[in-house]
């Protein structure tokens, strides 16, 4: 047991980053295809191919999901993932070629490093070439490289964050995992205490919620945040069920990030199902409850493994 998203057989994770620019990209490869759903709760999202994941639409499986820094510019990294997969003969067969289906979501890290260096096609390919089913780095890697939390008082008073992962497996073999890049406007809580977030002039944590309620300014950080991630399970789900699980996973964000799903965030969670295990009854509630648990733990790991807390 790795206790991360690599506990889901058939998935690989690749990451690439530019540490000087403080940005990067994370890709989860599902080379054999995986059913995928998505739930967008934040009001300022940056996404690609999410309409395709609507249960009423025809394509059933995706071949990768990309999490990227760089704001909307970072969506270009998914094109590099598409190129890589097409060269491997992976994708939706359209006769003349195979078209890889690659949804993506981005977070805003332009204010933390070099705003003019963003994840591009080359970095997306680099992440694919680094993909592994055995090694996963957490903290300031991939999409978490430039992530921060607690930006009520601007970048000078926020906390470094990153990307984190966690998995849970039941006695009967159900496995659910999360991989979350945490770049929230709000603060991260554990056991009722802030462990990463907005700081006062003396370096002590203060409540972003209280600051918003009292009318403190967000200092122009509208739409410049966002927590994005991927839930994965070995349980066979339909697209509609995967969408529901992605929605339930947002409960995990709400348990440890306050405030969450604001007009300043673009919070987006995907859910991948490899279909390895087929249950006789509807599995949504079991998988969804576990999804919320692993999402919360992945968020905590993202901030705990980040440097210079």
Would you give an account of this structure?
This protein is an alpha+beta fold. It has a single domain, classed as L-amino peptidase D-ALA esterase/amidase, CATH 3.60.70.12. The protein has helices at residues 77-87, 121-129, 208-213, 239-256, 284-304; strands at 12-18, 23-40, 47-48, 61-68, 92-93, 98-99, 104-106, 148-149, 159-160, 163-169, 175-181, 187-190, 193-196, 228-235, 257-258, 268-277. The strands form four sheets. Strands 1, 2, 3, 4, 7, 10, 11, 14 and 16 form a nine-stranded mixed sheet that branches. A hairpin with a 2-residue loop joins strand 12 (187-190) and strand 13. Helix 1 (77-87) packs across helix 2 (121-129) and helix 4 (239-256) packs across helix 5 (284-304). The model has no long low-confidence stretch (mean pLDDT 95).
Topology of helices and strands:
Elements: E1 12-18, E2 23-40, E3 47-48, E4 61-68, H1 77-87, E5 92-93, E6 98-99, E7 104-106, H2 121-129, E8 148-149, E9 159-160, E10 163-169, E11 175-181, E12 187-190, E13 193-196, H3 208-213, E14 228-235, H4 239-256, E15 257-258, E16 268-277, H5 284-304
Parallel strand pairs: 4-7, 14-16
Antiparallel strand pairs: 1-2, 2-4, 2-16, 3-7, 5-6, 8-9, 10-11, 11-14, 12-13, 12-15
Helix pairs in contact: 1-2, 4-5
């Amino acid at each position: 047991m790795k206790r991360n998203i690599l506990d889901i057989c058939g998935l690989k994770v690749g990451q690439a980053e530019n540490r000087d620019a403080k940005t990067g990209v994370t890709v989860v490869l599902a080379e054999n295809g995986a059913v995928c759903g998505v739930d967008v709760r934040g009001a300022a999202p940056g996404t690609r191919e999410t309409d395709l994941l609507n249960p009423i639409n025809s394509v059933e499986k995706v071949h990768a999901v990309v999490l990227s820094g760089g704001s909307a510019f970072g969506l270009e990294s998914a094109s590099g993932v598409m190129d890589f997969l097409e060269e491997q003969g992976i994708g939706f067969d359209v006769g003349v070629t195979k078209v890889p289906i690659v949804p993506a979501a981005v977070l805003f890290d332009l204010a933390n490093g070099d705003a003019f260096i963003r994840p591009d096609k080359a970095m997306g390919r680099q992440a694919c070439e680094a993909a592994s089913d055995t090694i996963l780095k957490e903290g300031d890697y991939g999409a978490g490289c430039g992530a921060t939390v607690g930006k009520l008082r601007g970048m000078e008073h926020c906390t470094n964050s990153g990307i984190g992962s966690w998995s849970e497996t039941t006695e009967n073999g159900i496995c659910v995992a999360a991989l979350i890049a945490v770049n929230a406007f709000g603060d991260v809580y554990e056991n009722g205490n802030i462990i990463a977030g907005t700081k006062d002039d003396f370096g002590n944590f203060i409540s972003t919620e209280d600051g918003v309620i009292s009318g403190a300014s967000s200092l122009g950080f509208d739409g410049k945040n966002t927590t994005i991630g991927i839930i994965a399970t070995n349980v066979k789900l339909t697209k509609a069920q995967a969408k529901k699980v992605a929605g339930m996973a947002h409960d995990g964000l709400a348990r440890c990030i306050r405030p969450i799903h604001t007009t300043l965030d673009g919070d987006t969670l995907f859910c991948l199902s490899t279909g390895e295990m087929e249950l006789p009854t509807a599995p949504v509630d079991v998988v969804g409850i576990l999804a919320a648990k692993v999402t919360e733990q992945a968020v905590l790991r993202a901030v705990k493994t980040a440097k210079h807390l």
